[in-house]
Amino acid sequence: MTEAKLAGSASDRRPTLIDFDTVLESFDPAMGLEVHVELNTATKMFCGCPTGFGAAPNTQVCPTCLGLPGAMPVVNGKAVESAMRIGLALNCEIAEWCRFARKNYFYPDMPKNFQTSQYDEPIAFDGYLDVDVDGETFRIEIERAHMEEDTGKATHVGGTTGRIHGADYSLIDYNRAGIPLIEIVTRPIMGAGEKAPLVAKAYVSALRDLVKALGVSDVRMDQGSMRCDVNLSLAPKGSGALGTRSETKNVNSLRSVERAVRYEMSRHAGILLAGGKVLQETRHFHEDDGSTSPGREKSDAEDYRYFPEPDLVPVAPSREWVEELRGTLPEPPAGRRTRLQAEFGFSDLEMRDVVAAGALDLIAETVEAGTTPQAARKWWMSELARRANDTGVALDEVGVTPAQIVEVQRLIDDKTINDKLARQVFEGLYAGEGTPAEIVAARGLAVVSDDGALTAAVDAAIEAQPAVAEKIRGGNHAAAGALIGAVMKAMGGQANAARVREIIMEKLA
Amino acid sequence: MPELSRGEVRHLADLARIDLSDAELDHLAPQLNVILESVASIQGVAGDDVVPTSHPIPMTNVFREDVVVPCLTPEQALAAAPEREDDKFAVPRILGDEQ
Amino acid sequence: MSWIRKTAAEQADALAAGEVTSVELVQAHLDQIAATNGDLNAFLHVDVPGALAQAAASDERRSAGSPLHALDGVPIAIKDVLTTEGLPTTAGSRILEGWIPPYDGTVTARIKAAGLPILGKTNMDEFAMGSSTENSAYGPTRNPWDHDRIPGGSGGGSAAAVAAFQAPLAIGSDTGGSIRQPGAMTGTVGVKPTYGSVSRYGVIALANSLDQLGPVTRTVLDSALLHELIGGHDPKDSTSVPTPVTGLIEAAREGAKGDLSGLRVGVVKELQGDAWAPDVVERFEESVDILKKLGADVVEVSLPSFVHAMAAYYLILPAECSSNLAKFDAMRYGRRVTPEGSPSAEEVMKVSRDAGFGDEVKRRIIIGTYALSSGYYDAYYGQAQKIRTLIIEDFRRAFESVDVLVSPTAPTTAFPIGEKVDDPLSMYLQDLATIPANLAGVPGISVPSGTSREDGLPTGVQFLAPVLEDARLYRVGAALEAALLEQWGGPIVPAAYQSKESS
């Protein structure tokens, strides 16, 4: 392979990008999404090695997942069960009989130089997932969900970029090799038009929620336990045809899915409007600017020489087993959302924001733990959302539990603290200073309701602002706000504001 | 059975990651054609009604419990590595993309 | 008479009776190896300290009255295709030179758990591809009957070691005849058990759907003893059958009584004809006559799809092995050859594999790559898998009318070293009679049937039984063996390896 091919053609380096609205005037987009979900089983797909994330290199390997001569695979029954549950949740048929197959290709991160996967006999097929975009429901048809194994991880050393091209050599850790993956493949998604990028994002998001609700994967896109490939093609508007597709690999956040679709639509249109032909190729997505670039051409012409894995026997789930698993499915996410919105009394707008922020489960847990839906929503969507945003973590990782929120709200309800002081309690929680009550005590945050201290502070405020006091005496009760503010400031925010107002009125009105 | 040309043999060897020399090609290509010619006799022997057998003893649903068993130590895992760096396998630069 | 001349059963009895120690037995075999392996090249690796240490431990167990197994202390050799923790395992290939596995295959573990000292690893055709052991990267094994001839293959090392009294027991692997054909070539007994009845975990795979480990011994009873020890379900091998292997020893003892009345024996019509050397056929017909005399009902049966077995085999095997051998890429283990300059991983793989694999391995990898290619899959691999179905059907029908099938094991006696190395097809014909059993998963045994009138070299007769009916092989095999031993006045032994005391 020559260096020129590595760099791609000139048009690839500087593609002509067509304005999104202009793309839609001439073309209909079609998308295909391939999502890999890493299962959270205790052990790998074909051996008993653990699957924990972040272990020291090559400490979670055995003869089987290291591809040593003589070693043999044995299927993890739990992984098969998880695959079937995913299939059932996606409204798929479950195969009565299916096999594993070898996908043969050489790559140093793959210990056997074949991937044990499924080929023409997937465990689950012919399903769908309904997703909502701006109140419109799109039915995404699922072609198949099949079982396979992950590869090891290569780190590229030397060169200037630390990326694969230009590296001097690579270092391989096989801990990830053999971790169970479920690959979920859609049929071409057509007819989404201008909403195509949003539909793609909504699908991946809905799939993530569904898999999470099943409890079979961590579905952490940032850690690679959920990975997405985006296929996109354009066809002349109204033709109903399918154009030549590009396959953008490893698009690993929800936002990136939307951006990758948008970018590829603009790029394809640029080529087609100039009379060119779109290459059927693999492309890389770049998080920094949302662009894609061509992958290296494959010399092997994609002939994977699939054949049934002779070291494994067929999987033939009994219908009893399938029905038993169907009985373990959680409430479908869409139905659950409708139910919770009604129970919580959230408006459509509130509900949409809550779902978009990934706060619904947390709010539900907080309500379960003993507070009102509005209070739970208030804290998760304001203080804690801000914290998550500032620190760049997911909402469920800010370090505050639903039980702690219930306790904070209880302190507010019994007037020990006010909303403003509550923020300081949360700061204490982020810092791990103890329970909310302990933080209130340690930080001296309790609201002051002692009349002696408050009366002294009110007297000082009246003395400092005689003109304001005069206005109140003259019947302008709204002016009391200025005195209350002065008292709160003097007392470091810890005064019981309602009592302060009463004392001012007793003295001046 | 179409005869395999030298170029086709080279392509197959490339697919199989074997760097055949010209001399090896001269030596192996005719032998391969003799073998292929003899195995070609089975084409058309079995019709569509015959189910292919991939496992001689029919069995299904052989599964393992999802229970962790001891792994190799990194020392054992890396003992035979042609090259290593710390506890990772060192391999020459990789050209292709990940699949 | 020295201990090495004794059968494994006799050695076990002597150990139990306190007439000999395991250390003495092991030392006697190590001495024989030292005296003869230079000529034979049957062992690739001999573990002198390990075998003696295991023997000493065995003797301690004996004196404490707690042997692990009837064969505890009887030495054994293992074909280099099975992993042995801490002992080199090369599968006869340059690419695995010096590789020391960090784990035991299941059969290795069972042998160790029963206390049999492991003498070492035996030579084989590279990755078990061959019928002569000439394809070993470490030089050919020579036939104890004639050092200029091949001992059969791929397990020529195990067969030669047992024939030359280097070991009373050995493990072989049989993918298309690699236990049985060397048995015929060396005058030894070899058994290919029912597919899935002996664990393949730790066997460096040639063709996963055909491979099976089995015993290599000098007597049918010894094979039964070893077979029961190594057989049985293994959760580490997904294709392992759950049915336990039992009744083999009993069947061998029963058969040795010489009564085969009621046994229906089918002579395979398709395994006769011009391909079979007249001296081989002569011995075969003699064996069939003996079976009749012992009371068996002998009839001819036809298994018409056998004529396609070879072609199917030489598509299925290369396809599976082309994928199995992909792991030998010099990235994680094995010999890495780095060309000049700053080569890529891909280039290093290609050069290492070219340098590390021999011609036969390359031929089969390329054929297999071709057979699995899109566009050819259905015509070749798919068709071969259908032939397999037809052959299974043929067996099923044949076993409705007979209890066992019989044929010569190999079409010729041992041929001269070098004769067929560059003629793959004529080499492949060696396995004409043995391949169908592997395609169908049925068990088979090869028993010595005498020596050729032409060249004085041994011949073998093969019995085949239905899946999981391995015991039938032991009954009929032991009966024939007993009758022939009586006729010969003792076992047939290569001249150069006859006991000096007893000759």
Automatic annotation (TrEMBL), chain A:
Give GO MF terms, alphabetically: asparaginyl-tRNA synthase (glutamine-hydrolyzing) activity; ATP binding; glutaminyl-tRNA synthase (glutamine-hydrolyzing) activity; transferase activity
Residue ranges of domain Asn/Gln amidotransferase in the record: 361-508
Provide the GO biological process annotations: glutaminyl-tRNAGln biosynthesis via transamidation; translation
Keyword field contains Magnesium: no
Q: Which UniProt keywords apply?
A: ATP-binding, Ligase, Nucleotide-binding, Protein biosynthesis, Transferase
Under InterPro entries, the record lists: Asn/Gln-tRNA_amidoTrfase_suB/E (IPR017959), Asn/Gln-tRNA_Trfase_suB/E_cat (IPR006075), Asn/Gln_amidotransferase (IPR018027), Asn/Gln_tRNA_amidoTrase-B-like (IPR003789), GatB (IPR004413), GatB_Yqey_C_2 (IPR023168), Gln-tRNA_amidoTrfase_suB_CS (IPR017958), Gln_synth/guanido_kin_cat_dom (IPR014746)
Q: Which domain of life is it from?
A: Bacteria
Q: From the UniProt record, list the reaction(s) this protein catalyses.
A: L-aspartyl-tRNA(Asn) + L-glutamine + ATP + H2O = L-asparaginyl-tRNA(Asn) + L-glutamate + ADP + phosphate + 2 H(+); L-glutamyl-tRNA(Gln) + L-glutamine + ATP + H2O = L-glutaminyl-tRNA(Gln) + L-glutamate + ADP + phosphate + H(+)
Q: Which EC number(s) are documented for this chain?
A: 6.3.5.-
Homology family: Belongs to the GatB/GatE family. GatB subfamily.
Q: Describe the subunit structure.
A: Heterotrimer of A, B and C subunits.
Q: What does this protein do?
A: Allows the formation of correctly charged Asn-tRNA(Asn) or Gln-tRNA(Gln) through the transamidation of misacylated Asp-tRNA(Asn) or Glu-tRNA(Gln) in organisms which lack either or both of asparaginyl-tRNA or glutaminyl-tRNA synthetases. The reaction takes place in the presence of glutamine and ATP through an activated phospho-Asp-tRNA(Asn) or phospho-Glu-tRNA(Gln).
Official protein name in the record: Aspartyl/glutamyl-tRNA(Asn/Gln) amidotransferase subunit B
Automatic annotation (TrEMBL), chain B:
Q: Which reaction does it catalyse?
A: L-aspartyl-tRNA(Asn) + L-glutamine + ATP + H2O = L-asparaginyl-tRNA(Asn) + L-glutamate + ADP + phosphate + 2 H(+); L-glutamyl-tRNA(Gln) + L-glutamine + ATP + H2O = L-glutaminyl-tRNA(Gln) + L-glutamate + ADP + phosphate + H(+)
Task: Give the top-level enzyme category.
Answer: ligase
Q: What is its EC number?
A: 6.3.5.-
Task: Locate the coiled-coil region(s) and give their ranges.
Answer: none
Highest taxon, organism lineage: Bacteria
Q: Which family does it belong to?
A: Belongs to the GatC family.
Protein name per its UniProtKB record: Aspartyl/glutamyl-tRNA(Asn/Gln) amidotransferase subunit C
Supply the gene name.
Answer: gatC
TrEMBL record, chain C:
Give one GO term, molecular function aspect: glutaminyl-tRNA synthase (glutamine-hydrolyzing) activity
EC number in record: 6.3.5.7
On whether Endoplasmic reticulum is a keyword of this UniProt record, the answer is no
Q: Which GO terms describe its cellular component?
A: glutamyl-tRNA(Gln) amidotransferase complex
The UniProt entry annotates the active site at 79 (charge relay system), 154 (charge relay system), 178 (acyl-ester intermediate)
Q: Which reaction does it catalyse?
A: L-glutamyl-tRNA(Gln) + L-glutamine + ATP + H2O = L-glutaminyl-tRNA(Gln) + L-glutamate + ADP + phosphate + H(+)
Top-level taxon of origin: Bacteria
Biological role stated in the UniProt entry: Allows the formation of correctly charged Gln-tRNA(Gln) through the transamidation of misacylated Glu-tRNA(Gln) in organisms which lack glutaminyl-tRNA synthetase. The reaction takes place in the presence of glutamine and ATP through an activated gamma-phospho-Glu-tRNA(Gln).
Which family is it part of? Belongs to the amidase family. GatA subfamily.
User: What name goes with this protein?
Assistant: Glutamyl-tRNA(Gln) amidotransferase subunit A
Organism, scientific name: Nocardioides terrae
Point out the gene that encodes the protein.
gatA
